[in-house]
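Chapter summary example.
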Amino acid sequence: PLPPIRYTNLAEDAATLQQHRGKPLLVNLWATWCQPCVEELAEFKQREADLRKAGIDILAINVDGIGSESPTDPQYINDFLAKEGFPIYAGTSVVSK
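The structure predicted for these 97 residues follows.
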């Protein structure tokens, strides 16, 4: 089994992958500066109806601040996703354990 994985959702609340139990979950790690990542998010947006029909949820976890002393502002990520119109669950700050 997958060990517990915690992250911070964009409302800045602690969340876990286990909260998404019960249906398939595609977890995507992405960064705003990563063009292939942004293209993947756009493809998820294009295929949203197909993914939902298949019963798949997408959790896109932003990793911009990982390895940095200054974590990424969740509002910046919220604004980025809203501007692009990505209809997915999202979060930041992946924490294992």
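To summarize the output: The chain has a mean pLDDT of 80.
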